[in-house]
Write a structure and sequence with these properties.
The complex is a heterotetramer of chains A (160), B (151), C (362) and D (374). Chain A starts with a helix and ends in a 6-residue tail after the last strand. The radius of gyration of chain A is 29 Å and the shape is elongated. Chain A is built from three helices and seven strands, in the order H-E-E-H-E-E-H-E-E-E. Chain A is α+β, with helices and mostly antiparallel strands and 160 residues long. In chain B, the strands form two sheets. In chain B, strands 1-2-5-4-3 form a five-stranded mixed sheet, with helices on one face. A two-stranded parallel sheet of chain B has the order 6-7. By secondary structure, chain D is an alpha+beta fold. Chain D has a single domain, classed as Cytochrome-c3 Hydrogenase, chain B, CATH 1.10.645.10. Chain D is built from 15 helices and eight strands. In chain D, helix 5 runs antiparallel to helix 6 and helix 11 runs parallel beside helix 14. Chain D is globular and about 90 Å long. The chains are: A alpha+beta (160), B alpha/beta (151), C mainly alpha (362), D alpha+beta (374). Chains in contact: A-C, A-D, B-D, C-D. Chains A and D meet through helix 1 and helix 3 of A and helix 5, helix 6 and helix 7 of D.
Chain lengths: 160, 151, 362, 374
């Protein structure tokens, strides 16, 4: 007799746990307002990334096409996987001194792990992390970027 | 037991072991032929009772191959490091501790795979990660011109 | 042609008479066969697609998702797009597969579902064949599908497929018992195996209400066993994707895969339709005792809507099972059948016989 | 009538081999298991790893110390923060730097959030392995909130690279405390749902209780750590026994169970989730003021010697063993990854179980394949 009671008890208890589980899923079925899906490409306009989001390394330029990069190469040294290459050239300042300036700040996005070490190490704050995250391109060569815009110059303090 | 106690206790049992105090763990250096006796003692001795091998690493030192065993006693709560080394870099052979701590089996396969250290009496000493034609990449003299770029 | 949505008998008989005016009797028979065949084919294709869409939407809602939204409004055309994609896929036959059986298996599975649909009454007079052993016929034909699954698993030359097929064989043969016994319980109550008569017997009240506790127990058992027989979660061991990747249809692609896929959903429909016929009164409207006004309103809804409404409800419950429960293990499935469902079922038949003999049912 | 009797001696059964993986839905990546089966019964499991071996230990030998953490993100990507922390702590201990209290507390909160996120992902994948697909979405829904918190403070969702030698990469975001508190409140309300869906479910219990038993002795001998080891009664919580960061100033229970079966491993993780919520709750209001970074030299050089650091990741004990020769690059780095040792015990645990049980056992070990392969 005891066995039979336990047998029936097992069935009823088991069914109860099943119903409990169904109550959870059923609750969500009848509350479609709780849906958390975001329709991604459609909501692009309203999609806002966090300000610290690490999407890619960029070099901000001001209105006069000037940046802050001195070409010191610290970012290149700090990069763990060699995704930054600094090419510098010598120019002569109006005072007649020789000065090293950045020629090309080459950035290989395809190799970058977005670890933020270059941005953290940059003494002048010339490079920052951009918020763009849609990096798909048709050709791998397009992932190699030159961060300083053509014809750009270094910002000098006396202008401000 | 604290570091000094362990050092004294083992020093009495194994006079050939070189025992030094490290910043974290006492280190016992033992010649490879004595390794198994030491390890058995370490595990079975009631005062020591090192029953948990939490790390086994092979290191390629400039003139010898070292295997480092990190041990903990879950009963007494103390830790120790056992080191053994072989100077034969060409064909380093060290006894396996697999039957003392079964967890060593996988770690020894890894050490064999990456450093080429052979473990005697290991039941299943095959390469773990790489295929059979590969060299031993964690050795300092390993070269791979296709994949390693010097900067 | 007389079209009456409440009674299709007049429609079918007028088609029959219309055909008879210009065709010899044999021609009429052939023409009717063709007509029925084409409509069943159309029904299976369209209803299968609708069910696939519904399944995706229902499971999305259970999972707090939106489901397909891109193709058409609310993704309505998603399954059509999927079907076109499946049609265009390459048909791959693995090396060393038993080519004949491998190609035969999906056809067996899909043909069996067509055969079962023949006996399903969609509305009054809308039934291809009204056998006097209709219930037996459906349960016999529906269990043939396992042959296709076994063949598919065997002939694919893949160990995963074989394990899946063997599981499926063991499972379906066991659960056939429970389905059969719970059907017998209801046949005792109805006193007939003819589907139209079973439905007619429920004109005063659905069996699930008039049959007391045994009918409810039989309904629950039938739902569980029916889910198991259609190889759906939580009994989807034959394709258990976390264990066997895709089970018996691992190697199938393109339209052959689509056949398995479609057959699963049509089987789901057949099981739900049988549950509707036997427990929920088929196409009979919902009547409450002597509430004349209420009953009249209920009568106003055409039987075909009643039928499909009930079928959809049962399908929804079975989907609810699938998207809530973890999968059972093979030995647990057999334990559930032989140690729980079978004894309960046998007792239930005794109880039902007692009730019918004593005339305690309504 | 003649009756044919089956002569069972003449029917020969045969073991057969099945390759489960490297492409298989429930090996969680590119793990390959060579199964020796007899029908449904598993006789032997031979794990074949290395499909995602990336040579992190070798790469570390040519990197500076502050560059190593970003590689460890890719090891056990579900407990990226703990991996970073392990390297950071190891370097700090070697240099004998005392980081500010603020850093310690932030690291602890982050580690617990990461543990929660990892356990949530484990929970939903566990459900999926058992065939309950809906759990997958519920788990991910809640995990997403933690990842949003990470994104706001660390700038990344998965590969955080947040702990650096000497501190943390950024100070916490001004919204951090509020969002974490909101999350704790939200998730406490959601935990019963987890129990209703899986823990209490009769099918789930039948499938897990008594399956894949691992005794305490075996757990210690095989080095099975983390919730999997603690479910067998192996008190291996590094947070408790060798406290680091701010774990010595919070009260929490080490979840210990004695059964050692699949259900115990499951329950240990679920209990750990609420324990993690407790730890965060204790710390989140008491983040001390101060710097988020100690001033470090541009090039970190460790003194000559060997350094070992143990931390508790979501999967178990992670050890970082650095051999330094005094140069700016480590001489040898070894990661004792928890999944590696846990995987080694899989064969031991799954002798004689069915295929479905093997999937469940593997799921409760919570393997992350890059963590095994490194």
């Amino acid at each position: 007799m005891k066995e039979i009671i336990r047998y029936l008890n097992d069935i009823i208890k088991g069914l109860c746990t099943l119903v409990k589980g169904m109550a959870v899923t059923g609750h969500y079925f009848f509350h479609p307002k709780l849906i958390t899906t975001q329709q991604y490409p459609e909501n692009r306009a309203t999609l806002k990334m966090q300000e610290r989001f690490r999407g890619e390394v960029i070099m901000p330029h001001d209105a006069n096409n000037r940046h802050k990069c001195t070409g010191c190469g610290i970012c290149e040294m700090n990069c763990p996987n060699g995704s930054i290459e600094i090419i510098t050239r010598m120019i002569e300042t109006p005072e007649g001194k020789k000065k090293k300036v950045i020629d090309k700040h080459i950035y290989h996005l395809g190799m970058c792990t977005l670890c933020n070490l270059c941005v953290k190490a940059c003494p002048t704050g010339a490079i920052v992390m951009g918020q763009k995250f849609e990096h798909a391109v048709w050709d791998r060569s397009q992932l190699t970027k030159v961060l300083n815009q053509p014809g750009s110059e270094i910002m000098t303090d006396e202008k401000e | 037991m604290n570091q000094t106690d362990i050092a004294n206790y083992i020093g009495n049992l194994f006079p050939e072991a070189i025992i030094s105090r490290g910043p974290q763990f006492p280190t016992i250096e033992i010649p490879p032929e004595k390794l198994i006796t030491l390890c058995r003692k370490l595990r079975d001795d009631e005062q020591l009772a090192f029953d948990y091998l939490f790390c086994l690493s092979g290191v390629d030192m400039p003139d010898h191959m070292t295997v480092v065993y990190h041990l903990e006693s879950t009963w007494n709560g103390h830790c120790a490091v056992v080191k053994t080394h072989t100077t034969d870099r060409k064909n380093p052979v060290i006894d396996s501790v697999n039957d003392i701590w079964p967890t060593a089996g996988f770690h020894e396969r890894e050490a064999f795979d990456l450093l080429g250290i052979r473990f005697n009496n290991h039941p299943d000493l095959r390469r773990l990660f790489l295929d059979d034609s590969w060299g031993f990449p964690l050795r300092k003299d390993y070269t791979d011109p296709a994949r390693i770029v010097e900067r | 042609m007389a079209f009456d949505i409440y009674d299709f008998t007049s429609l079918t008989s007028s088609i029959h008479e219309g055909l008879a005016t210009f065709l010899p009797p044999v021609g009429v028979l052939v023409a009717e066969w063709l007509l029925v065949g084409i409509s069943v084919l159309l029904f299976v294709a369209v209803f299968g697609l609708i069910l696939v869409y519904l399944e995706r939407k229902v499971c999305a809602l259970f999972q707090q998702r939106l489901g397909p939204m891109r193709v058409g409004k609310w993704g309505l055309l998603q399954t059509v797009a999927d079907f076109i994609k499946l049609l265009m896929k390459e048909l791959i036959t693995p090396n060393k597969a038993d080519k004949f059986l491998y190609n035969l298996a999906p056809f067996i599975v899909i043909i069996v579902t067509f055969m079962a649909i023949a006996a399903i009454p969609f509305a009054k007079g809308l039934q291809a064949i009204d056998f006097d052993i209709g219930v037996l016929y459906v349960s016999a034909v529906a269990s043939l599908g396992v042959i296709g699954i076994l063949l598919a698993g065997w002939s694919s030359n893949n160990k995963y497929s074989l394990i899946g097929a063997m599981r499926s064989g063991a499972q379906i043969i066991s659960y056939e018992l429970s389905v059969g016994l719970s059907l017998i319980t209801m046949i005792i109550l109805a006193g007939s195996m003819q589907i139209s008569e079973i439905i007619q017997a429920q004109s005063t009240g659905w069996f699930i209400f008039t049959g007391h506790i045994p009918a409810i127990i039989a309904f629950i058992v039938f739902l569980i066993a029916g889910t198991a027989e259609t190889n759906r979660g939580p009994f989807d061991l034959a394709e258990a994707e976390s264990e066997l990747t895709a089970g018996f249809h691992t190697e199938y692609s393109g339209i052959k895969f689509a056949f398995f896929f479609l057959a699963e959903y049509v089987n789901l429909f057949i099981v739900s339709a049988m549950a509707t016929v036997l427990f929920l009164g088929g196409w009979m409207p919902f009547h409450v005792g002597s509430f004349e006004g209420f009953n009249a309103v209920m009568d106003f809804v055409p039987p075909i809507f009643w039928f499909f409404g009930k079928v959809m409800f049962v399908i929804f419950v079975i989907m609810w099972f699938k998207w809530t429960f973890p999968r059972l293990r093979i030995d647990q499935i057999l334990t559930l059948e032989w140690k729980y469902l079978l004894p309960i079922n046998l007792l239930n038949i005794l109880l039902m016989t007692l009730i019918v003999l004593m005339g305690w049912h309504f | 009538m003649t009756t044919t009797t089956l002569d069972f001696d003449t029917i020969k059964t045969q073991e057969y081999l099945v390759n489960m993986g490297p492409q298989h839905p429930s090996t969680h990546g590119v793990l390959r298991l060579v199964l020796k089966l007899e029908g449904e019964i598993v006789h032997n499991v031979d794990p074949v790893v290395g499909y995602i071996h990336s040579g992190i230990e070798k790469m570390c030998e040519s990197l500076a110390y502050h560059q190593i953490p970003h590689l460890t993100d890719r090891m056990d990507y579900l407990s990226a923060h703990m991996n970073n922390e392990a390297v950071a702590l190891c370097v700090e201990n070697a240099l004998q730097i005392e980081v500010p209290d603020r850093v310690k507390v932030i690291r602890t909160i982050m580690a617990e959030l990461q543990r929660l996120a990892s356990h949530q992902l484990w929970w939903c994948v566990m459900g999926m392995d058992m065939g309950a697909l809906t759990t997958f979405f519920y788990g991910l829904r809640d995990r997403e909130l933690i990842l949003d918190i990470f994104e706001e403070t660390c700038g990344a969702r998965l590969t955080l690279n947040y702990s650096t030698p000497g501190g943390v990469m950024f100070d916490i975001h001004p919204n951090f405390q509020k969002r974490v508190k909101d999350f704790i409140k939200y998730f406490r309300a959601k935990l019963p749902e987890y129990n209703q869906l899986l823990s209490g479910n009769v099918i789930f219990r039948e499938r897990t209780i008594g399956i894949g038993h691992l005794s305490q002795k075996d757990a210690i001998a095989w080095g099975v750590t983390g919730p999997s080891g603690r479910a067998s009664g192996f008190a291996c919580d590094v947070r408790k026994h060798h406290p680091y960061s701010a774990y010595d100033r919070v009260n929490f229970n080490e979840i210990l169970r004695t059964e050692g079966d699949t259900y115990a491993r499951y329950q240990a993780r679920v209990d750990e989730m609420s324990e993690s919520l407790d730890i965060i709750g204790q710390l989140i209001d008491n983040i001390p003021e101060g710097d988020h970074q100690v001033k470090m030299k541009g090039i970190i050089k460790l003194p000559e010697g060997e350094f070992y650091q143990r931390v508790e990741t979501a999967r178990g004990e992670l050890g970082v063993f650095i051999v330094s020769d005094g140069k700016k690059n480590p001489y040898r780095v070894k990661f004792r990854s928890p999944g590696f040792s846990n995987l080694a015990a899989l064969n031991h645990m799954s002798k004689g179980v069915k295929i479905a049980d093997l999937v469940a056992i593997m799921s409760t070990l919570d393997l992350v394949i890059p963590d095994i392969d490194r």
